[in-house]
Amino acid sequence: MDVLSLCPLRALGFVWQPRAGTCAQTVVVKATFRLVPGEAVLAEAQDAPGEEERRWDEGPSSSVRVPSDGAPYKARADVVLVGHAYAPGKQPSRSWMARLVVGELDKSIEVWCDRGVRWQDGQLLEGPRVTKVPLRWERAAGGPETNNPVGMRFDAAPDRYGMVPIPNLQPPGMFVASRADTFAPACFGPIAPEWPRVSARLGRLGPGWNGRPFPEGFDYGTFQVAPPDQQVAEIRANERIVLENLHPEHARLVTSLPGLRPRAVVDRATGEREEVGLVADTLWIDTDRGVCCVVWRGRIGLRHAAEAGRIAVWVEGMPLVEVGREVRDRDIEEDDGGATMTLVAPLEKKGEPALPFVPGLSRLSEPERRELLQALSRWAGRESGDGSETVFAPMARPAGKALPFEGAREVAEDDDGDMAKTLPPMGRPAMMAAPFVLPSVPMSPPVPVIEELADREEAPGPLPAPPPMIGPLATAEMVQAKLEEKAGEAKETASAGEKEAAPVEVEEEGVDLSIEETAAIAAEIAEGKVERATVLEARELSERAWKKNVARWDEAMEEEQGRGRNALRGAYDAAYVERVEGFRGVITVEEYARILVGMERGRVEGVLDAMGIQRAALMPIVRVWARKVARDGNLAVKSMRAVRDMRAD
């Protein structure tokens, strides 16, 4: 199908086979924002979605700078960051902390100048102080036959000066005095598809999956590009972002995404129209350019790989702007009001399709293009008063169910007309933003897309054949009548509301939990042995009071960290780990070593599960133990020995 962007954002589409005999089309929409204090703004130059990743050194052996946008599906959202870490105040420094906060993600990396161990006597030497350090996996721990094959080995042979370099990027709180003091790889950047962590999950499908059916039970986590501790449940439209020592101009940049949401509508050649549910599943930050990119992804089912149709993309409340080829006033019929519109052809490599089965540049004639724009304007928007542009108005969120229709049991006809396939309920994932619905325009039911289970951790379900067209599309008269009906209902509701008594204001609930109590309750909720509501009820807490308390301490810890202190964070972590140990027993040195080695090998989630430790406890445990080994030299030696033993297993 052709993909047309009617807004500044760039888009592409590609076809793939979830399994033999089924076809789906994924739609990718990408927006680029400038990172400025307060709220990010849409950049004048928009980055195009890329089918292949781009490397730092433009070579296959280097780490990834820009990940591919060609994933057909992601179970979780990825947050990655590339560029440089900048010394505070642009003053040459030997080391500093770089911190990334996106929603619930809070990750810090200790950044160091060049340093190394002299092979002859084992003395640790430091190079000159620096003002910035590249944030690349090449500057982290690792090496061949490790989970970070481009990283720096602690047991590498000395260079011609007799020095063995130490990685510039390390986890916070690690004490390094000799070659024996090793640590796990630490970086904010994306993972390359050929690295062990990913290639092992691809299995027999191999890297060249395009156009090939996915095998039964395929692990869609393969397409996650972020390190495990940078994969989040969702990227909200107004997500808060904090960068500390990660911006060339601002030592601490606090901003948020501007709440922009693209929409996409499919017009099939058979006359059916449906909306594609777009989900933001990738946030890529470039500290050097001071920008970030958000990628939305959605899927539709196809009758066959070459099914004809159009997918139009636009942004609510945003006028059609000049990005590609302008349709001049004299090229538009008089009843359009002289509107100036823009058509953007599908993105593709010159002379070949964007991905398998995707046709080249749209071959729509001018009348067909004008017809499409007019239909979208009448269907989803309104014309401005002076007729200079068409603006798509925001669509109100209805009280009913969003697309795909939740809980519905549908029956699809197969190619022979037999009613043979019963579809399971199409549940909307709890952690992702709900797709907008179109309350004012009757539409054909959507072609069933890949089944999205409630937790989004399992593979997408099968793609049954699309249903036949069930009726004609709405006309302009039908839309106008429906709008008038809605306006009348709204007026009656407003009149009735004026007669009602003013609502009684509820007094804000007081909260006085200590930070240790807050951490213990959070750990108990995350453990999941007791229902969340039961945990709060046992402490006579309402959901509202609990959230207010959490927000209060989060703000306090963030404010303290902004002043270079972490006493509150330390108290929170200690109480959290103590509560976790109350569930499963004290964490030993050997178990801590298993966690570190699991992080090195990209298997930390499995290690935590095997030890009966909740995954949310990973970073509190690491921070608590980092403080322990920093204070206790004997414990540091024991932990290093345990790590070496674990690596040898």
From TrEMBL:
<feature type="region of interest" description="Disordered">
    <location>
        <begin position="44"/>
        <end position="69"/>
    </location>
</feature>
<dbReference type="InterPro" id="IPR018683">
    <property type="entry name" value="DUF2169"/>
</dbReference>
<feature type="compositionally biased region" description="Basic and acidic residues">
    <location>
        <begin position="487"/>
        <end position="502"/>
    </location>
</feature>
<feature type="domain" description="DUF2169">
    <location>
        <begin position="25"/>
        <end position="297"/>
    </location>
</feature>
<protein>
    <submittedName>
        <fullName>DUF2169 domain-containing protein</fullName>
    </submittedName>
</protein>
<feature type="region of interest" description="Disordered">
    <location>
        <begin position="487"/>
        <end position="510"/>
    </location>
</feature>
<dbReference type="Pfam" id="PF09937">
    <property type="entry name" value="DUF2169"/>
</dbReference>
